[in-house]
Design brief:
single chain; about 450 residues; alpha/beta; Lyase, Ornithine Decarboxylase, Chain A, domain 1; TIM Barrel; nine-stranded mixed β-sheet; eight-stranded parallel beta barrel; 12 helices; binds pyridoxal-5'-phosphate
Length: about 450
């Protein structure tokens, strides 16, 4: 059982306390980090499945068909793509790399759609070859590239509308405001729809908007849905296409810190689905298209744990401690990038009394290399294992080799067993692309 004062909603479902230590299923986290090495990432399948089922239940608020297209940017690997494809999910991908991984994981290409504000001709050609379900037109330049193509079969295009809506989130995560690099203005969307109708090898099949990421107030999203529905009514009214996919994107916020809002995912998805259904009924009418949601973090963030080993410590005269661990901005850029706040616990003593505030920093040559700016933590010692929850999204996908850091190993906890997902990088991996100079 987890003690009630522990913020269990931030931690994977399989997390347990046993003899006052943290376990994932049967596995003592301190032992795991020592045995498998740190930094170490663990994903809990039960938590991922729970989030998928919250989406499935919530989507019942939409009377038509629906699609959960995982936003691969949150983190993609072959085994994750396999897990998601086997569960019937689609994929939102933005590069040839993500497309290939999704396909090698067994994704049905018809359930893949391609995003990006500057898709290369190579990516468009690859998407056409793969027969993806949708290429999401982000700007008119891209449409020109598509017009020039000679695909073997007509290309199914979605339009990404910039609905001029800003959710309450960090500026770097807003994507749907006027001046954003993403999406077509209303007028551009109309031009694009007319041009697509002129091209026999192009078909307009979907409408999309994504206003940003990590927000809790859904009102800007609802306004974006209204605009999308108005565009759908216009497109169909003009006979320019049949909107078979209606996609208000992803972005639902998740708690990372005990002070963050913690809405129930199923209710957020149901509210969003019901709102979209009303908007469709009122503004468009007729059969419901497929409601395509693109969750990233709300599917996978809570499933992930990051484990680090405590090393050097500094005690300041202010009473604050600086605790250095063996990972940092090279595996979790989010604190440096957007001041993201996390919590953490010592794996062997998660509930020991606090010894005062601590700043958790990494080993890299940047003062911006920190994981937690300030946290009340028990007394820590070198060799202790520090565990950071809600680490499943936008950590590993943004990880780097800065300072020659080796990206961590990743393991899956599935029905009590531990299964490797990715091995730790080696120095040989760092050298793999380098050409030695010819001898002098
Ligand atoms: C187009 C698009 N869809 C979906 C997402 C997923 O957002 P989140 O992980 O917050 O659900 C993103 C993230 O930036 C995105 O750019």
């Amino acid at each position: 059982m987890l003690p009630t004062k522990f913020p269990r909603h931030l931690w994977p479902l399989s997390l347990h306390f046993f003899q006052k230590r943290l376990f994932l299923g049967e596995h003592d986290l301190t032992d795991l980090a020592r045995r498998l090495g740190a930094p170490l990432y663990l994903y809990d399948l039960a938590t991922l499945d729970h989030a998928i089922s919250a989406y499935r239940h919530g989507l019942r608020g939409w009377p038509g068909p629906s699609l959960i297209a995982y936003a691969s940017k949150a983190w993609l690997s072959l085994p994750l793509a396999q897990l998601l494809a086997r569960r019937g999910l689609g994929f939102d991908v933005v590069s040839v790399g993500e497309l290939e991984i999704a396909q090698r994981g067994g994704a049905d290409p018809r359930l893949i759609h391609i995003h990006g504000n500057n898709k290369s001709p190579g990516l468009l050609a690859r998407a056409a070859d793969a027969g993806v379900g949708g290429i999401v037109v982000d700007n008119l330049h891209e449409l020109t590239l598509l017009e020039k193509m000679q695909p073997p079969a007509p290309l199914s295009l979605w339009l990404r509308l910039n609905p001029d809506q800003s959710p309450d989130t960090h500026a770097y995560r807003q994507t749907g405001h006027y001046g954003s690099k993403f999406g077509l203005s209303w007028e551009e969307a109309q031009i694009a729809a007319r041009r697509i109708a002129q091209a026999p090898h192009l078909q307009l099949t979907g409408l999309h908007a994504h206003i940003g990421s990590q927000f809790f107030d859904l009102k800007p999203l609802f306004r974006a849905i209204d605009r999308l529905a108005a565009l759908a009514a216009w497109v169909q009214g003009q006979g320019l296409g049949e909107v078979r996919y209606f996609s208000p994107g992803g972005g639902l916020g998740v708690p990372y810190h005990p002070d963050d809002p913690a809405p129930r995912l199923v209710e957020a998805v149901r509210g969003l689905s019901e709102y979209a259904a009303r908007a469709w009924q009122e503004r468009v009418g007729g059969p419901y298209p497929t409601l395509a949601l693109e969750p990233g973090r709300s599917l996978i963030a809570r499933a992930g744990l990051a484990l680090y080993t405590v090393g050097a410590m500094r005690h300041l005269t202010t009473g604050q401690r600086i605790i250095a661990v063996d990972g940092g901005m090279s595996d979790n850029l989010r604190p440096a990038l957007y001041g993201a706040r996390y919590t953490a616990a010592l794996a062997h003593a998660p509930l020991a009394p606090t010894a005062g505030p601590a700043r958790i920093v990494g080993p890299l040559c940047e003062s911006g290399d920190f994981l937690i700016d300030s946290i009340d933590l028990p007394k820590a010692h070198p060799g202790d294992v520090l565990v950071v929850p809600s680490s499943g999204a936008y950590h590993l996908s943004m990880a780097s080799n800065y300072n020659g850091m080796l990206r961590p190993a990743v393991w899956l906890h599935a029905r009590g067993k531990l299964i490797p997902m990715q091995r730790r990088e080696t120095v040989a991996d760092l050298l793999r692309r380098d050409f030695p100079l010819p001898p002098q």
